[in-house]
Specification:
The chain is mainly alpha-helical. It has a domain at about 75-210. It has 9 helices and 2 strands. Strands 1-2 form a two-stranded antiparallel sheet. Strand 1 and strand 2 (about 10-15) form a beta hairpin. The radius of gyration is 21 Å and the shape is globular. The model is unreliable at about 1-5 (pLDDT under 50).
Length: about 210
């Protein structure tokens, strides 16, 4: 028989299972880690700071993530998953004929404050071999997923992977400038160039179909 707890007279709801409680605690820790990376930087994102922000005991934090490398690697994987879900929900398959909108939506994700957490770890990994070792496969898997998603939305496009790699690298550089200076004066002209590249790839597909 399932255990229940009374929430108000005449109404009862199932008590959360142990697995659900673990997942909830893990999610709080990951969200707190991303917030710390954004606000405190990698140096300030200690396991203690994350546990305090998540309002989770030190023992519970260590149970889920024994080391800081475990914690920050999982946090970035969590953030990448969230970014992909946001993009997928914002761009339906019906939008595939509009590469301009696809580029705008992609930049909207890069420009979010949470993306600063990614940049923090990419920078720190340059001199932290353990972080680099943990981060590399996560970043590679995320990139592969993004490429698969692009091919889903733009099937049969030209050299889509190469174009997307150029667009992603450019947007990452734009995000660095924006976070470092607080502004990106020529944002629209840069985005216009990236949209032109995206349209060229999509239009190449259309030209092949007409020939």
């Amino acid at each position: 028989m399932q255990t229940v707890t009374e929430t108000e007279p005449g109404r009862e709801r199932p008590r959360r299972t142990q697995a659900e409680r673990r997942a909830h605690t893990r999610g709080r820790l990951l969200d707190a880690a991303v917030e710390c990376l954004v606000e405190l930087g990698y140096a300030g994102t200690t396991t203690t700071a994350v546990a305090e922000r998540a309002e989770v005991s030190r023992g519970a934090q260590l149970h889920h993530f024994p080391t800081r490398a475990d914690l920050v690697a999982a946090a970035i994987e969590h953030l990448f998953d969230r970014m992909r879900d946001e993009y997928r929900s914002a761009l339906s398959p019906a939008d595939v004929a509009d590469p301009d909108e696809a580029v705008d939506l992609l930049w909207a994700i890069f420009a979010k404050p949470d993306f600063a957490a990614v940049l923090e770890l990419y920078t720190a990994a340059r001199t932290d071999a353990e972080l680099r070792r943990r981060l590399a496969p996560i970043a590679d898997a995320h990139q592969a997923h993004v490429y698969r998603l692009a091919r889903e939305y733009f099937p049969g496009a030209g050299d889509l992977d190469r174009a997307l790699r150029t667009i992603l690298d450019a947007m990452q550089g734009m995000a660095v400038t924006r976070f470092a200076t607080g502004a990106l004066a020529d944002r629209e002209s840069r985005l216009a160039e990236l949209k032109r590249l995206a349209r060229d790839v999509v239009e190449a597909r259309a030209a092949r179909r007409r020939s």
